[in-house]
Amino acid sequence: MPKTAYKGLILKTVAEFNILPLTSECNGCCIFCSHKGNPPGVEVFMLPKLSPEDVMELAEFLSPDRKIIIGESATRIIEGEPFTYPDLIQVLEYIRKRFPSTPIQITTSGFSLDKGTVMKLADLKPIGINLSLNSSDIFNRHRLMPGLKEDHVIEGIEYMGLHDIPFEGSLVAVEAEDGEYIDAVETIKFLAAVGSRTIKVYIPGYTHLFPGKNGFFTVYNKILDALCVIKNSVDVPILLEPAVIEDLSPVVEGVIRGSPAWHAEIFKGDIIEYINGIRPLTRLDAFNKIKSAGSVNIKVRRGREVIDRYIKKERGEAPGIVFPLDIDPIIGEYIKKAVERNRARRPLIMTSILGEGIIKALLKRYISKGFHGDNLAIKPVENRFFGGTISCGGLLVVDDFIHALKDVDFTPDLIVIPSVPFDHSGRDLLGKFFLEIEGYTGIKVEII
């Protein structure tokens, strides 16, 4: 059973991530819910019952300079459906009064977006909705989310359009009984037609406790094949998450209609070569460089041509360019410094299955400069504890790293592991400390 979230963790969520927690209650009962598949021993937390006064007190730790997020989780707190919180509108009105111009982003299934609710939200702009639609066919949506007894999502989408409330749609791509993804494709078409700024398609996160499910790459490739049929016919950026990335070239996946990049005539498939004269090292680096600047001059490669473009925007404004998430190049510097600090000659870099291609591409530039090229090794770590389709770094546990080390055919003098599976105290989802890896191997472990 989940524990009750302690105040320090709640405050960390607010102060570090600008997330305002309201409730862990969710009325969706989604058949793909990740929490249903957690193996025994996973340490997650439920929010205690929070009064409006409690939430307003937490809001004092929000930053006015960053988007305020409601309904997302960045820690081990289970975030529920915001619209099941009975005093949501009261809290939103307080936030808007306290932070008059800070954007608010709410993630919701949309079940409660009737006309009256949407009109109240319209009075609280700037506000945006991340809409977990999952299916545009109401019968199938309720098959996927059987807990929804009342559902106003379709009229809510219409009213959001009438009141100029931007939304970004998403769906978990669940295979039909015939093995096809026709409903997912139709849902993407629907979201594109009704004005979704972007569309995120999620691979179902099934653990080994979901019987009869395929592994990640089998599911990923089937969904990717289904998306290939529609991607070029839909004028909305579509992102498949988690993504399989083998290189760091900042290729534009899509551009949001009406955004600064759209007005600058940046197109899907363009490669960002220079930003104000500086070459970006990764997709994330390119996005951050453009967003943090004001108006920018960029050079893009389009086929064999290199074209100059000027994006007119405010400093800190999102440009509207959509990339799949890769990596901050500073991670390469951290790894390099860890190796040099320990004078390691046989360093082993451990990463998730999905992170392997990214880390290889990131370190390639260092290896090419003579950075322990022949001796540096990268070891992907399988998510054995969770199993199923789970292949991401955030859900690795200490025992996964230890098991992976049994397959390493040399003795490293330094082990470098990612920080993302561990909380602020260095413990994994089972409460194990990362230095248990060092205790098991007798080899120095650095966390990056």
Automatic annotation (TrEMBL):
PANTHER family: FEMO COFACTOR BIOSYNTHESIS PROTEIN NIFB, FEMO COFACTOR BIOSYNTHESIS PROTEIN NIFB-RELATED
EC number: 4.1.99.22
SUPFAM superfamilies linked to this entry: PDZ domain-like (SSF50156), Radical SAM enzymes (SSF102114)
Pfam family, one: DUF512
Similarity annotation: Belongs to the radical SAM superfamily. NifB family.
Enzyme class per UniProt: lyase
Pathway: Cofactor biosynthesis; Fe-Mo cofactor biosynthesis
Keywords recorded for this protein, A-Z: 4Fe-4S, Iron, Iron-sulfur, Lyase, Metal-binding, Nitrogen fixation, S-adenosyl-L-methionine
Cofactor(s) this protein cannot do without: [4Fe-4S] cluster
Domain Radical SAM core: 12-239
Keyword Signal: no
Protein name: GTP 3',8-cyclase
Claim: Iron is one of the keywords in the record: yes
GO MF: 4 iron, 4 sulfur cluster binding; GTP 3',8'-cyclase activity; metal ion binding
